[in-house]
Amino acid sequence: PIPGSDLQLKVDRLPLMGSHEAPRRIGLLFDYTCPDCRQQHGYIREAVEKFDGKLSCLMIPMPLDKNCNDLIEETYPVQIDACEYAKICLAVHQVAADKYDSFDRWLFSDRDEKKELNEVRKYAAELVGAEKLEKALSSEALQEQLKQNILIYKLNYEKNTVIPQTIVHDHMIFGLSESAEKLQSELQRILKLKSVKLVKAKEPVLETEIVGTYDLRYGENIFRVVFQEGGIVIITNDKKETREYKWKIEDGEVHVEYEDFVGVYRIG
């Protein structure tokens, strides 16, 4: 649902960044022609990859172009053809949802510069087939979805016209986040994606190996953590209660998972 409304998104009609099985899902209302939107998209891509399998994001193209958005009185030069870019995003997903991620990564490969419309249309046609793409672009389902995306923008139009708009549970983040790290911090706080720090106890730590015993500091609490071979970690609290988690190393960080809990740890 969209915060402050009864509007429900038809998630199967929208592209998804990340796994369909992810327990936490956010949404990004964006216009590809908007530089801040492209930057926020990059921040979200980093967050989705950071929380490996625990976070996904619905992509909601919303053009700031009067040719398809009656809220816009004048289309600024930078937003020319925004409607067409949005339609191509939706069409690629409609024709071949499994290929959208490849399209999305290519489309946003340069956050600083938007790709030319003809180039985008050509790439999309090569990816999903020119005939299927054109059919999807003119479909009623696509037009209906575009109208719903614009309706989402309209819900907050009187309060805030800024985009991107990032939908996080019952929160709306308006505009570009200060940094990728700041966005990840907000997501951790709102969605309860835990992030704590491991402090070395006795055993030496190798760059690619963490098997051993550590003290885990979380607020005022200290837990004993034992990383075992085979990807299992046992965490014991001050009440001698234990839990078993799975762990793995990625890019010098330790990812620990248990049901809806994901922690990203740094050895220090």
Question: Could you please describe the fold and organization of this structure?
Answer:
By secondary structure, the protein is of the alpha+beta class. It folds into 2 domains: 181 residues, 3-Layer(aba) Sandwich (Glutaredoxin); 69 residues. Helix content is 32%, strand content 25%. The chain is built from 7 helices and 12 strands. A 7-stranded antiparallel β-sheet has the order 6-7-8-9-10-11-12, with no helix packed on it. Helix 2 packs parallel to helix 4 and helix 2 crosses helix 5. The chain is elongated. About 5% of the residues have low confidence. InterPro entries: Thioredoxin-like_fold (IPR012336), Thioredoxin-like_sf (IPR036249). This is Thioredoxin-like fold domain-containing protein. It comes from marine metagenome.
